[in-house]
Write a structure and sequence with these properties.
The chain is mostly helical. Helix content is about 60%, strand content about 0%. The protein contains 7 helices and 2 strands. Belongs to the CMC family.
Length: about 160
């Protein structure tokens, strides 16, 4: 009797990202900014060499700076990978609570300044309902993937797939 190899799992398509949670357009733009900054940080010397070559030139840049430009583009293409996009997205998620706290701090400071100015200039106070709505808005959590995520809900990795 011949030995047959054990059955293997059917081959699956690779996941395009470890973080498939959909984000809003502005959140995706923030992730993209982090991604581009990370790629630029890897290629700092190449970017600097191209910038130095291009300094003081106008329409002759493509001809005079071809080598530094090609080196810069090759470096950026080499580092602009899906793994780097995933790392940027994970960094965005890691800094989410920090951004939320900063947003709350700025909003509270704005309310304090407004109250001070109203008192200073002798303006009437806001009615209680309007003030309550503003304070309620401050307590609203950030929306991610169309769902509201409250602090501490599901841990740091809430919503990741």
């Amino acid at each position: 009797m011949a030995l047959q190899p054990p059955p293997t799992e059917p081959e699956r398509l690779p996941m395009p990202s470890r973080n498939p949670l959909p984000l809003s357009a502005s959140q995706e733009a923030q992730v993209r900014d982090i991604f581009y900054a990370r790629v630029r940080s890897h290629c700092g010397p190449e970017i600097k060499a191209f910038a130095e070559c291009a300094l003081g030139r106008t329409f002759t840049v493509p001809f005079a700076c071809r080598k530094p430009h090609n080196a810069m583009n090759a470096c950026m293409k080499a580092h602009a990978t899906p793994a780097e996009q995933d790392a940027a997205r994970e960094e965005w998620f890691a800094k989410r609570l920090e951004r939320q706290k900063e947003k709350e701090r700025k909003a509270r400071r704005k309310l304090e300044q407004e109250a001070f100015l109203r008192e200073w200039w002798g303006l009437p106070e806001k009615d209680r309902e309007e003030r309550r709505r503003e304070e309620e808005k401050l307590r609203m959590p950030e929306r991610i993937g169309g769902m509201v995520r409250r602090r501490g809900e599901g841990g740091e990795d809430a919503g990741r797939g």
